[in-house]
Amino acid sequence: MERTAIRPLPMGNLSVMQAFLFSVLTGALGIYALNHINPQGSFFGLMSKPGAFGLLAMGLYVLAYTPLKRVSPFAITVGAVPGAIPFLLGFVAATDDFGIAAGTLFAIQFFWQYPHFIAIAWVQDTEYKKAGFKMMIGGEKGKYSAIIAVITSVFMTFISIAPFLWEIPLLSLSVYGAIIVFLLGFWFTFKAVKLHQGCDDVTAKTLMLSSFAYLPLMQIIYVLDKYLIQ
After folding, report:
1. Could you read off the pLDDT of 44-68 as tens digits, one per residue?
2. H helix runs in 35-124, sequence order
3. CB half-sphere exposure, 158, CA atoms < 13 A
4. 145 with 198: CB under 8 angstroms?
5. Which of 31, 123, 154, 171 could disulfide-link to 163, CB 3.0 to 4.6 Å?
C-alpha cells in the first residue's frame, strides 16, 4: 500500500525475521511490565489484570484481527476489541477495579472505532482492495457503511455521559464535563451524518480527521473535569 510503502519492512531495511524477533521481544517486555502492575489483583493467580488484558489485546490483534482483514469486514468488529482494551487497561491498572466503570470506558472506545475505521477504509478503499484487504462494511462505499458510522457514534456519545447520568462508582463526571463531552460527541456524530448525506471521499476524510481529534479531547475532558471541576 502507498501509505505503508516507506516503512522499514517494505523498504527492505529490515528482514521479516528481524521484524518478527523485534516484535516478540517488545511484546514480551510489555507483557512482563504490565504483569508487575498490581500483581496481587491477579486472574486465577496466573497474571495481573493489566498483564492479562495486554496479552489478550496482543493475541486478538495479531492472531484474529490481522488475518481477518483479508477475509471479511467483520475484522473491524474483532479489531475494535483490542483497540478498546488500552482505555480499560489503564483504568484497571490505576484502580485494580474491573467493573462497570472499566466497561464504560471500553464501550466508548469500542463504538468510536466503527466511524473511525469506516472513514479510514473509505478514504483508503482503492489501496486496501489492491492489497487484498476487505475492510469496507457492505463491500463498497455507500449508505450502509455510513449509517453504521452514524449509529455507533450515537451509542458512543450517550455512553460517554453515562458516568454523569448514573453516577458510576470510580468514574464521575460533573454536569459541566457532561455537557462538554456531549457536545463533542454531537459534533463527531454530525460528521458521520454528513458522510451519510454526501457519501464522498471529502466527508469521509473529514470524519477520519475528526475521529483523531475526538478521542484524546474526550479523555482530556474526563481528566480535567475530575481534577479541576469536581
Report:
1. 667 889 999 999 999 999 999 999 9
2. 49-60, 66-68, 75-95, 100-123
3. 5
4. no
5. 171
Contacting residues for 6 by C-beta, under 8 A, at least 6 apart = none
Element (H, E) at 16: helix 16-34
Minimal CA–CA distance to 90: which of 38, 162, 29? Answer: 38
Tell me which residue has cell 493467580.
45
Q: What angle do CA 163, 167, 170 make, to 5 degrees?
A: 75
Which backbone phi and psi does 12 adopt, to 5 degrees?
A: 85, 10
Residue 38 binned pLDDT confidence (cut-offs 50, 70, 90): confident
pLDDT (tens digit per residue) in 89-127: 999 998 888 899 999 999 999 999 999 999 999 999 999
Distance CA 154, CA 171 (A): 21
DSSP state of 14: S
CB 178 within 8 Å of CB 227: no
Tell me the pairing of strands 47-48 and 42-43.
Answer: antiparallel
Separation CA 120–CA 73 (nearest Å): 13
SS3 category, 40? coil
The residue behind cell 489478550 is 56
Do 204 and 137 form a contact (C-beta atoms < 8 A)? no
